[in-house]
Structures are given as structure tokens and as C-alpha cells.
Task: structure prediction
Amino acid sequence: MPVMAAMAVLLLSPIVSPMLGAQQREAFFIAPTAEVNGYGWNGRAYGGGIVIGAGTGGALGLQLLYAADNENFVFVEMLFFLRAYIYGADASSGPFIQLGLGPVLYGDTKAEISGQGNVSIGINTGWRFLTGRNWFIEPAFRIGYPYLAGGGLSIGYRTGDGERRRAVNEE
Result:
């Protein structure tokens, strides 16, 4: 499923990137992520996943997350997101705000909960720190429904911007 999502993002990004302010080739990014959030019975669940997206100045993408609490409650979340970088149309780092929407499925040892689902919706804020031409670290915080709040860290790789920056510097 992550491969199909990456292909969808790559196919749709040339269509959507003008709406997001990309002036040249948009940046594709992929990042494993770790998160603590409010899905658990005891208020905390811990998990990880992958974030895939494309765009400069903003991004469209997909976040897949699997997490569990200490009482065998697990969930799988698939969020489609729209991100805007605060620094403008050419930004691919710095502060951002992001809207997410998608399905979440629950699993539990309690039969009445296991196999049930819900709609997850929320808003994220974070900061992308560049650690080289194409690598980044991205702490983020989110609030929404049904998880209330969460915080995480992604470490990833992006394309597109390094090539544009090099071309601008050579002119």
C-alpha cells in the first residue's frame, strides 16, 4: 500500500503543484516517523509509520501510522494531508501548518472495539530543519479527533530543492 500511495503522489504532484506555488520541479519527500498520541485507553499510544509527500511552498501527501498502547489497543491511521510552509511559495523548510483527514481502524482484545473504524481529522504544526542538501528532521505536534493530541519526529529525505538551489547559485 505505501508503494501505491507514493505512485499516486508522484502522478498527482505535477497537477497540484501549481496550486501549491511550485515554480519549478517540486520536491518529493519520504520520512519514517515516530509518534506518541492520545489514542490509547490509558491516554497514550506509541507508534511509527511513514510520511510521503510532494510540493514546494506546500505539499500534498499521505501519512500511514501504526500505534499501540500498553493494554493491547492498536490502531492504523491513513491520513491524506495538505501542508503550507509559512515562509512562502518557494519554501520547503521552516515552520508549517498541515490539515489531515483519513480513516482510522481499531484493533483490541475487546470484541466490541476490534475491527471498528472512525474518521480522523486534525491540524498539525511543526518545523522542518534541513540537515544537509536533501535530508531533514521534522518535529511536529497535532490536535484533532479522535486522538485529541499527538507529537512526533520524522527524519527524512527530499528531492527537487537541492537541484534548484544549485542551478540558482550557478547563474
Remarks:
- The CA atoms of residues 28 and 54 lie 4 Å apart.
